[in-house]
Design a protein that fits this description.
single chain; 9-stranded mixed beta sheet; Immunoglobulin-like; alpha+beta; 2 domains; 274 residues
Amino acid sequence: MPRSLSLRNAYIWGLSLVLILLACEETTEWNLTSGENEKLVVEAILTDEFKEQTISLSLSDNDLNGEPIGLNDALVHVEVNGSAIAFIPDNQVPGRYTSEVPFAVLGDLSYRLNIVWNDQLYTATSELSTVAPMPTISFLPYADTDSLRFDEFAPLYNANQQAMYEMRIDWSQLTNEENAEAKLLFFTFSTIDVSALIRPVQDTVRFPRASTVIARKYGLNDDFAAYMRALAIETYWRGGIYYGAAASLPTNISNDGLGFFSTCAVLTDTLIAE
């Protein structure tokens, strides 16, 4: 058989196989197993800034991208150095509790969170983290447009520090658009983990020149860093949008609670994107 004819037959056979496979496609509905829900979820980061501190409480559920179900019927207070600071429910935001008085977290003290809900006591403890100096934050042109994006400023691995960067960008003063702001999170961890170091590619967020950028750098204790790394793998680095706690995440909340309680030193800087 001529070589050209053999190649032609192979091509036809391969094309036929592809068409057969495509013809066999059908819709599949995945039956996801529900977990044990309506557990208490705690989101509590107290900082060394003198202000009214906040704590958020919600219930776990199966909806990955749903809004958390806030709880406003818990008793919440934080103990430190023999004193107790009460947290009062915020009637404007379901699940948010605000400290009765402003205060700043101090170093070398142990802070204990106490939550009484549904006749159960949930506790967690934390000591103030340290935070390394804020790096220089710069911007790069976005493709062939007049927009900007962040240059690399937060290495994923640094043996000497662990940090979370919260970057809030606001360009509402430059446009009449309704959605003229964005929030990005970046992380630096001090341990090497293959699953954590190889991050999926995320969409690059671009913003106009002269946007206002508020940069906040949180120092992370080792246990809180482990929680944030697990959370990033499950949500941000998967492209998820739900900032909530999954049952598989580590936690320091007692009594089978979810989420985390941490005390973080914070640095803040405001700059104009140029």
